[in-house]
Amino acid sequence: MPESALVLFSGGQDSATCLAWALERFDQVETIGFDYGQRHRVELDCRAAFRSRLGAAFPQWNAKLGPDHTLALDALGALSDTAMTRETEIAFAANGLPNTFVPGRNLLFFTFAAALAYRRGLRHIVGGMCETDYSGYPDCRDDSIKALQVAITLGMDRRFVLHTPLMWRDKAATWALSARLGGQALIDLTLEHTHTCYRGDRTRRHPWGYGCATCPACDLRRRGFDSFMAR
What we know:
Blueprint: E1 4-8, H1 13-25, E2 28-35, H2 42-57, H3 59-62, E3 65-72, H4 74-79, H5 105-120, E4 124-126, H6 142-156, E5 161-163, H7 171-193, E6 205-206, E7 209-210, H8 216-230
Parallel strand pairs: 1-2, 1-4, 2-3, 4-5
Antiparallel strand pairs: 6-7
């Protein structure tokens, strides 16, 4: 039977890699993005450009690329008092987590994605969560995603499979996966048309892409790219 998937596609490097990963494996792939008042909302503006250029560069994937969906989650931004949703300095909170952690974000993302997948008849949901090279967010952990898969499957009485292909890859390995999936063409698309910087800075272009070059997301992306290029 044909298998279809829904990819949580933010417009960042990790979700872009997951989109290519899903297109390589499934018969049809749809995407979903969330507008929750994020400080780096510019990532949403990258989504359409990346999708269209990906389809043009890879006709075999273009035939599988289905509709894109964007959901507004304003309540999440209103509830959150974080450096991702407020113009505050990025730092570590008293609990040891960076103040870029948005409580409940990935839990809500997967739950809303599953509700859409239920309506669209999609069984597989793909996200770019990772606990190898990450900021310590508890909702990125493999245990969290596995528990959520069970809860969503039980709560909707339909079998869903949550895929996290980057879970055990560091950022260098994520770049390597992009190279394996789409060669230099996919690397170039990721460099030019994805956004990772928490501050939403697209005024400066670096060898590893756009960003402020000082926030944790830029640092991870830069170090991963440097390590990948050094291999």
